[in-house]
Amino acid sequence: MKNLTEQKLITAAVAAGWDTNAIKAWKKIIKKEACKRSTADLLLQLEQIGSDSYTRLFTKSRLLPMEKLELVLKQMQAQIDQNGFLQLAGDYRLSPSMPPHGRFLKLFRKAVRQTFLPQGLRPVYQSKRKNELAIKIHLFRSYLDRHNLWYVRQYFPGNTDWEKLQNYQRQAKVKFDYSTDARLHNRYLSNQDFTYPQNMKIQVTKWRRMSEFIVNLETGKFVSEWDFYQQQANGNINADLAGYQVSAGAAVANTGSFNYGLPKGKYAWLLRFSHSHQLLDVKHPTDPQLRYQFNHAKASHYYWKSPQTYLKDSKGGYADIVKKGPVDFLAWQQVPLDQKKEIYQAFVVSCRKRLPKKNPGFAFFWQHYQTIY
Asked: Taking residues 15-20, what's their average pLDDT?
């Protein structure tokens, strides 16, 4: 009976596409865990991408990095629909226990870098296979982001997503980074005027800046495309533009994502892949039609437009509110709603006057502003 159980588990791993070395690692796991876990539980571990067992197989496998990426997508039955949206199916899921700083995410990110650098995700490769993989890998980042949001919302207490995120940081003992620009997450409707930033960016961890969270500065709620999309009865996402209103799509326009490269910010120059963010995250294959049309100019309708930074143009009106973390977030919340536009403009002027020094964050400005006025 025991042999039949082991054979069933091994057969499942072979059918999933794992190579000989990964199978050897799986056999060791079975031998160690069979007396503690049921066959069903072990199979679940195999099918949960990012679980301890799955990560062990991913690490021990001698498949090429590109083949590992293909394997994950194949196991999740990832297919691009007629609207350019990546749809997932099948029994494989991202492991509920995998945190935003999880080891598997680091390994997966490394495999992306090994496969697509130095050219990047957007170039047209001679290999049709590699081109198709590049598109899917770009689209898959949204699902990694969805998982991270779910993880924080599911496992940590708090009245808002922001409070839950802070509790995650404390319990996981990870450091957050607030130094990267949130401008592209503060798009506004092109038929309106830009007033002041609505959102801030937090990245995990301080050094890797791998997972990212966009948080609304007023509500403390995550800004995510996944809170906007409609899920169909078959589990797929409705990605047809006809089913949505552009004016209601702020969450799609300003959503967070998962970073395969290292975004610019503090200490980026110390790391060998400091230019990878442009090649893997900024210059990427085309987004799904829904998000693309929300964020690009069309003669027939308005769209979500990114503001111009004060650093590039004396008339540019964008500066990040949050640069130092919670202290900036709390300082901005002290500003009365009817004064935010005026005080924000004064903040931008002060940032411009400080050049070439960097934006110190809103709390620094607010402290001095209150002293003067």
From this structure: 98
One-letter amino acid for residue 49 of the chain: I
Using DSSP, how many helices (H) and how many strands (E) does the chain show? 14, 11
- Bond into 195 cis (ω within 30): no
How many Cα atoms within 13 Å fall on the side-chain side of residue 34? 16
What CA–CA distance (Å, rounded) separates 200 from 354? 21
- What one-letter code names the amino acid at 133? L
- Rounded Cα gap, residues 125 and 322, in angstroms: 39
User: Using the 8-state DSSP alphabet, how is residue 282 labeled?
Assistant: I
Closest CA to 130 of 76, 79, 73, 66: 66
Which sign does the torsion angle of CA 254, 124, 141, 229 carry?
Answer: positive
Q: Which amino acid is at 221?
A: K
List own/partner pairs for 20-27 with CB under 8 A and 24 or more apart: 20/62, 21/60, 21/61, 21/62, 22/57, 22/58, 22/60, 22/61, 22/63, 24/60, 25/56, 25/57, 25/59, 25/60, 25/61, 26/53, 26/56, 26/57
For the chain, what is the largest distance between any 2 Cα atoms, rounded to a whole number of angstroms? 80
The partner residues of 305 in beta bridges, in order of sequence, read 188
Structure tokens at 240: 């047809």
Question: What residues pair up with 79 in beta bridges, in sequence order?
Answer: 87
Map out the domains of the chain as residue ranges. Answer: 1-62, 64-307, 309-373
Give the whole-angstrom CA distance, residue 166 versus residue 26.
Answer: 36
What span, in angstroms and rounded, lies between the C-alpha atoms of 253 and 214? 12
Mean pLDDT of 210-226: 97
Is-above-0.90 flag for pTM? yes
Tokens encoding 8: 């069933």
312: pLDDT strictly greater than 90 = no
Copy the structure tokens of residue 14.
Answer: 């072979």
- d(CA 38, CA 119) in angstroms, rounded, equals 45
Q: What is the pLDDT of residue 313?
A: 66
* Beta carbons of 73 and 92 less than 8 angstroms apart: no
Distance of CA 341 to the CA centre of its chain: 29
Q: Residue 237 in contact with residue 229, Cβ under 8 Å?
A: yes
Transcribe 195-250 into DSSP letters: -S--EEEEEESTTT--EEEEEETTT--B--GGGTPEEPTTS-EE--GGGS-GGG-H
For residue 142, what are its two tokens?
């949204």
- Give me the torsion for CA of 124, 127, 131, 134, rounded to 10°: -110
